[in-house]
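Still learning folds. Look over my entry:

…
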Amino acid sequence: MSTSGRFTIPSESNFAEKTAELARLWGADAVRNSDGTQLDDEVVALGMKVYTAYFPTRAHNEWITLHMDETPQVYLLSKRALAESDTVDVSLMDGFFEEQLKPNFDADPHKYWEVVDRSTGAVVPTEQWTVDAEAGVVHVSGAELMHEYTVSFLAYIIWDPVEMYNHLTNGWGDKEHEIPFDIYHPATRKFVFDTFEQWLKDNPQVDVVRFTTFFYQFTLLFDQKQREKVVDWFGCACTVSPAALDDFEKEYGYRLRPEDFVNEGSYNSAWRVPRKPQRDWIDFLSHFVRANVKKLASLSHEAGKEAMMFLGDQWIGTEPYKDGFEDLGLDAVVGSIGDGTTTRMIADIPGVKYTEGRFLPYFFPDTFYEGNDPSIEAWDNWRKARRAILRSPIARMGYGGYLSLAAKFPKFVDAVEHISDEFRDIHDRTDGEAARGVLNVAILNCWGKMRSWMAYTVAHALPNKQTYSYYGILESLSGMRVNVRFISFDDVLEHGVADDIDVIVTGGPVDTAFSGGSVWAEEPRLAATLRAWVHGGGALIGVGQPSAQQFQGRFFQLADVLGVDEERHQTLSVDKYFPAVTPEHFITADVHLGEGVLQGFLDAGYRKPLSGCGGGQAIGELGGIDFGEPIADTFPVNEDVTLLRADGGQVQLAVNEYGKGRGVYVSGLPYSAANARLLERALFWASHNEGKYAAYSSSNPECEVAVFDKSGCYCVVNNTDRAQSTYVERGDGRIERIELAPSGIAWRTI
């Protein structure tokens, strides 16, 4: 087993001796500077590959303070103001953090701003409002009594949002605020490239330029109490300028409204069904950003250095799954590993030589404080990521933050030593091979390939109450023995369903980009195409409110395929009949494991165990299924539908034969071992592949099996912090009992 390599360690000023010690312990072959610090000469002299974080559009206040009209800008939506007479005053900055944002009074507000009557949606004519810059107020005349009014206004971003977050988190006190700048302005663009070229000359010791990231921050806005107010990891709100808006109009032939950015207060969340202006702006922005990223990469290469992109911070405009990303000339992408989903988001990126994961916890004082045990998070993070790494390996790993904090926690230091050794061992045993995928699964939504492994996300790896029931689909799939791709509704309309797809999974809340919204009513061909595919033998799994749109007396437009629809109080006078719940089914077979005898395991479809495997204790009880936030008033469309779970007059799990194909409905799928097992069995059943299920599966849902054909081996991983036992059926039908330590991994030859 390799004890060094594939590991990047962070370091900081005046910490050379301890850096050398931990680098040896963790097997680091590369070192990076922590944010805001420089590497000591002694660290550089250790002979490791040197990464240096580079910020193209911040940390040069000497320039931007002389050009404050060239900071990035954002359209902000004011609070609603109630008209109690025919005039109303709207405060601009109420609810926003004035140290971060400042209204742009330089560009003509009557050209670039918008006042909207939110009671009607009508735009208020410019002659009916004036701006009081000193007071930060817009005065509106001719208002309708008791109507609400808002102002969408341009604001300068005067404190870099990520540096601000780090500043507030770490308590940096009087440290100078770093002001961001926008390269859309020619003078600032020239400054950025001139500065970078000089930096390349001044830093010959650097091997890898770690761009953190490029030009435009994802939407990250704070309120006056320094709390996060708007966080959208995909948000393009912080990318506007009068010059860019004018150029967009020339290129696309129409002018964007401020409303096209604030979007009724959603700021174009990735959950909103994307509209043409939003898609066009993404394309316009990407074209500009990519041209300049390509130039930075070329300059790096000319200086003999690699160009690495951090998938975070100012990553907007560099969508890695958008066509053409591979043409940028980047050598690598590094990103934060929050769970299996974010691991796959990084690992699957095409067009780069290698990918690297930054594991958690980040070495910040919010985790590394006296009395806390950061090793708990480290192990949890590793277990989540490992499932995905086995399916799609990242080439390198590392950590971020301030090494001096981590060094104070010996238990954490030991944990990282073990994790890094295991990471290298996986690579040694598999030579970077991805584990075998038995089925081809497609995730269907509005965004498709462009947002691969990014569906159902608000902030990076942070599902919330409204999203966890869907995000769990991705987390389950990230470590599952299937091949995953992402397709869009447009793909299906234009090309149909690819011949090699075994199962399509779709769903989400109504009127979102993930369930599709009005596309189901506007494009009846979509439902017809999917019906034909399933009827001919395909498989469709719908989660939550799949194909939801009230149209022609149905809410789920694919209710006939799924066997389930939702009552929206339109047909309460029409009775619905629930057949009895079917207790025994392939999908729910694991629920019956763990009753105290091996027979339950054998009855689930496995054959004779290996000698010496034991015969008394059945291993791996599937815990209760968590269906997440309930979808109220779902019902079977007929009595031929097979109900597997129902609760309080609503369907939680149902299956339906549809022609030669099958449909499955699940009300929600938060991530858990039990839910991942449920989804896996549903995929195999829906695609008529039950016969392929048993080989190299684990009787214990807390453990998973990954098979590496080229390497001639397979492994079993324990995804918990407790010791586990499991039975694994091999390819020849024999069954082996495997004991696993907490967080353990066991390797076997095929």
About this structure: The chain has two domains: 7-58+183-228+271-430, 439-749. The longest helix spans residues 276-302. Confidence is low (pLDDT under 50) at residues 592-622. Residues 576 and 635 are 7 Å apart (CA to CA).
